[in-house]
Amino acid sequence: MSDSSIFNRRKFLGASLAGAGVALSAKQTLAQAKPDPLITDVQDWQRYLGDGVDKRPYGTPSKFEKNVIRRDVPWLTASPESSVNFTPLHELDGIITPSGLCFERHHSGIAEIDPASHRLMINGLVEKPLVFTMDDIRRMPRVNKIYFLECAANSGMEWRGAQLNGCQFTHGMVHNVMYTGVSLKTLLDEAGVKSNAKWLMLEGADAAGMNRSLPIQKGLDDCILAFAMNGEALRSEQGYPLRAVIPGWEGNMWVKWIRRIEVGDQPWQTREETSKYTDLLADGRSRKHTFIMDAKSVVTNPSPQAPLKFKGRNVLSGLAWSGRGTVKRVDVSMDGGRNWQSARLDGPVLDKSLTRFYVDFDWSGQEMMIQSRAMDSTGYVQPSKDELRKVRGVNSIYHNNGIQTWLVRANGETENVEIG
Amino acid sequence: MSDSSIFNRRKFLGASLAGAGVALSAKQTLAQAKPDPLITDVQDWQRYLGDGVDKRPYGTPSKFEKNVIRRDVPWLTASPESSVNFTPLHELDGIITPSGLCFERHHSGIAEIDPASHRLMINGLVEKPLVFTMDDIRRMPRVNKIYFLECAANSGMEWRGAQLNGCQFTHGMVHNVMYTGVSLKTLLDEAGVKSNAKWLMLEGADAAGMNRSLPIQKGLDDCILAFAMNGEALRSEQGYPLRAVIPGWEGNMWVKWIRRIEVGDQPWQTREETSKYTDLLADGRSRKHTFIMDAKSVVTNPSPQAPLKFKGRNVLSGLAWSGRGTVKRVDVSMDGGRNWQSARLDGPVLDKSLTRFYVDFDWSGQEMMIQSRAMDSTGYVQPSKDELRKVRGVNSIYHNNGIQTWLVRANGETENVEIG
Fold first, then answer.
1. A117 vs B contacts (CB less than 8 Å)
2. Cβ proximity of B74 and A77 under 8 Å
């Protein structure tokens, strides 16, 4: 994908697409005048044997899905080893992100760790410092949970107005998988946390030695050290063989390739929680300890990479999530926020998990300004971008959970736009 | 994997494994006499940058997980195009089966279908015969559901006694994913089912033209035509671009690559529901319409491919499911059925879905006969193999949901055995 294609207001391939809505009818009856040759013609896949079960010991997607990939933006960072790529949200459905499409964010590239050589140390304010092998960890009681992980910088470039043309780029630093692992409390209890302990420092085994401070109360509450995602071992780019799962909190704290937990009585003030991952306000001060990811949503279809192709019936689809609980309701506007209707939530609605929503609607070809607005179980309502800017200014690149607007033109073309 | 290795009672690599339980302690304290060099030594992955985000647009498992694959049994069938491979249940955790590891069963190999050319026809006893493109289907209201799919022949070779040495082979014709698609009722309502309609015939677009009869009541109740699994498009080997989802019923009815639904007033008596997929009883009669997969469970760890490696604390793990509802309880015996304890169910417990269970236990090195027994929400309790044989004889290869027994030897070696 060329750099220019992710920018907003690119030249749209209107000519070929504009006709599609009339060229294909919504459905074709057998009685129609010109029968579709595909209905009666025998296709190759009906004529010949396909591949057998010996061909793909580990399966991969159909060759017709080769555009369904993570995409990176080469100019965004100095090197691909300290960069990010994005989940193709507009190509996905349901609430599970396939492991091969979960966005990546690395500070020193992907550590390729031999699990037999990996160790987890717990030290600091504990009764008994411990070192665990992966075998040790696999012999402790396990838990299974589905959680979203969102990078604090997701939608960061949109603070100053509509920038990137596609939800993969504006909102694609989020994924949602089922984790299996050991609760952090189980591990800490084994080491025996001292009574003056207040903070944990989580440290990765990558070349960056990525580390973050975590309040011990959160660590004892619902955090997990996970060794599996979506049923199988963690992927290398997601922290194989062991990563921290910090439900509802910013992705940077979910330390990958975790090798050490130090227990202390104050935060460590690491690079990743001081010069980075803090929100610089208009007056030059920074917000401190902005860990929780607030309620947010985005319409994934239609969106700039997935324009409307047909008049008549259509499915509007999107994702909503909250770091404070469950998604209670999602409202959708087709007219830039004047009128709202409640979307249909479908599939599991789980704590701190992506939640799928739909609006089934008929499109007569009018221009639309599409927005979605999530409300979570605490009653918090996703704000507009301007409401956020009034409080936070425009210096930050973190924690932008403002309402996204897509402009759908009469030919189906869809753009990232900024209103109100 | 050589053919011989899947058979029962193979020679076990006892020497190297037997020592492992004492060679590594459950955990090592920092104060121990000989510090583990891995604790202090810097590993390569801490020294050098790893791969960047540009390297893997679609991710794959770690190179250290290359044994986590589907396995087929070449001698089992005449050709790999009309054969089966098996999900590596002993390598997985949680309840989601990764799409790349979902077992395959084909009758004419994998149809590689271009979705732009695929059509679904509904004909027969309907007011208005219809043909749908994939675009048409994607514009209809969607549903998201997690369901298990089990081949009717799963555990089939075990009818006549312990045969295969590993839960991948005894129980690996099952998987569990989240589907996204359109409810079959929505499609049938569009065509207008006539009042005398009683059965549906589902037909695939593979070279076998695989077809099955389905009672219309089931079709209107909870069936789905799915285009996505685990968030992304169906895999080719699972019916891309469209498959039937028939919750709780035998896998053969979940027609892949579905191209036609005929509405009729009686079953079609196709090959797959007459000479195949019927249970031949001892007196020569066959059971008819044995669609529902009854409650079943299996201990996945320990199991012959995943022996016990350590004394002391261990995690016993397994899967349970029922085609009639949810899993209510799983009991586990360590002594061949004399004493039972309730396992801990962990993770989502969903209707007609795999359910994960655990028993956290200490092992002192004694021989064990491990069994699990599922009870579902209807009160049905998984029977012993002998109880099944008393009713069904030993001719069948279908619908074996009997209790599985693993013998764990003092050195941790685990075998498939038959008792009582």
1. 38, 43
2. no
CATH 3.90.420.10 boundaries in chain A: 115-285
Contact A142 B55 (CB under 8 A): no
Helix (H) or strand (E) holding A261: strand A258-264
Considering only alpha carbons, which residue of chain A is nearest residue B46? A207
Subunit contact B59:A235, Cβ cutoff 8 A? yes
Beta-carbon separation of B178 and A94 below 8 A: yes
pTM for this model (two decimals)? 0.93
Give CATH 2.60.40.650 domain extents, chain B.
296-417
Report whether pLDDT(A18) > 60: no
Reading the block at residue A384, the tokens are 């507009």
Of A51, A65, A102, the CB nearest to B109: A51
CB contacts < 8 A, A to B, total 380
Q: Does domain A115-285 have CATH number 3.40.50.11210?
A: no
Chain-chain contact of B39 with A119 (C-beta, under 8 angstroms): yes
pLDDT tens digits, B181-198: 999 999 999 999 999 999
Per-residue pLDDT of A118-138, as tens digits, reads 999 999 999 999 999 999 999
Mutate to test the interface with A, among B48, B53, B263, B358 (most CBs of A within 10 A): B53
> Residue B31 — pLDDT band, cuts 50, 70, 90?
very low
Q: Cβ contact (<8 Å) for B117 and A60?
A: no
Q: What homologous superfamily does CATH list for B115-286?
A: Oxidoreductase, molybdopterin-binding domain (3.90.420.10)
Mean pLDDT of the region A252-272: 97
The arithmetic mean of pLDDT across residues A181-188, rounded, is 98
Instruction: Give burial (CB, 10 Å; 0-12/13-18/19+) of A261.
Output: buried
The predicted structure's pLDDT at residue A7 = 62
Protein fold of B296-417: Immunoglobulin-like (2.60.40)
Asked if B39 and A121 come within 8 Å (Cβ–Cβ), the reply is: yes
A91 pLDDT above the threshold of 80:
yes
> What residues of A are in contact with residue B31 (Cβ under 8 Å)?
129
Query: Most distant CA pair in chain B: distance in Å?
Result: 82
pLDDT in tens, A190-243: 999 999 999 999 999 999 999 999 999 999 999 999 999 999 999 999 999 999
How far B147 CA lies from chain A's nearest CA (Å)? 12
Which DSSP state fits B216? Answer: H
* d(CA B388, nearest CA chain A) in Å: 31
Return phi, psi of residue A117, to 5°: -100, -5
CB–CB contact A43 B205 (8 Å): yes
B105 contacts in A (CB within 8 Å)?
53
Find the CB nearest B233 among A55, A65, A99. A65
Mean pLDDT along residues B337-343: 98
Contact B79, B108 (CB under 8 A): no
Q: Which residue has the higher pLDDT, B173 or A30?
A: B173
Q: Which residues pair with A329 in a beta bridge?
A: A375
Residue range(s) in chain B whose domain bears CATH number 3.90.420.10: 115-286
CB-based contact B29 A130, cutoff 8 Å: yes
Q: In the structure, what pLDDT confidence band is assigned to residue B12 with cuts at 50, 70 and 90?
A: very low
C-alpha closest to that of A411 among A299, A307, A260: A307
Q: How far apart are CA A165 and CA A259, in angstroms?
A: 38
Contacts of B36 in chain A (CB under 8 A): 119, 131
* A322 within 8 A of A377, measured Cβ to Cβ: yes
* pLDDT at position A36: 66
Reference B236, options B328, B316, B118; nearest CA is B118
**Could you report the per-residue pLDDT of B201-241, keeping only the tens digit for each?**
999 999 999 999 999 999 999 999 999 999 999 999 999 99
List Cβ neighbours of A329 (8 Å cut-off, separation of 6 or more): A342, A345, A374, A375
